[in-house]
Amino acid sequence: MTPVWRIVKKSQQGEAFTGEGARRYGGRWNQRGTAVVYAADSLALAALEYFVHLGPAMASVELVSFRAEIPPRVAIRSLPRETLPANWRTEPPPPVTRAMGSDWAGEGGTAVLKVPSALILTQHNFILNPNHPDFPRIRISKPRPFRFDSRMWK
Description:
Elements: E1 2-9, H1 20-25, E2 37-40, H2 43-51, E3 63-70, E4 76-78, H3 95-107, E5 112-116, E6 124-128, E7 139-140, E8 144-146
Parallel strand pairs: 4-5
Antiparallel strand pairs: 1-3, 2-6, 3-7, 3-8, 5-6
C-alpha cells in the first residue's frame, strides 16, 4: 500500500476526494475545469502544502486530515523531477505544469500521478483522478481533526 495524506477545511470534508476544488480553481498540476485531488506522501508535507496557501486570518479555521491508501493494483505514473521544465516550481504555477497534469487526467492511463513537491524536493505529492475507474479502489480513512500549532502563525 502507498499511503497518502490530505488536509481540508472541516466544512469541505464531504467533497475532499471529488476534485471539485481543483476543478474550480486549478493548481500546479491541473488547469481549471480538470477535477483532480491533491495529496502528499506524509501528513507533514500535506500540512506544509496546505499552510503555504493560508494567511493569519485562517488560523481559527477547523481542519481535518485524511489518510488514503493506494493499493498495489492501482497503477501510479511518475513524473521525475529531472524530466520537468526548469520553471516547474515557480509561483504562480506555470501553464506547462498545469497542462501536464490536465493532459494526464484526460488521457486516463492511471488513477494516480506522482510528482515532486515544489516545497521539499525529496518529497512527493500524489495527484488523484476521481474520474478514473481505479479511483474507487483507493481506501480513504474517516477524517480526523487537524490543527496547526499556534507558533506557526507568528
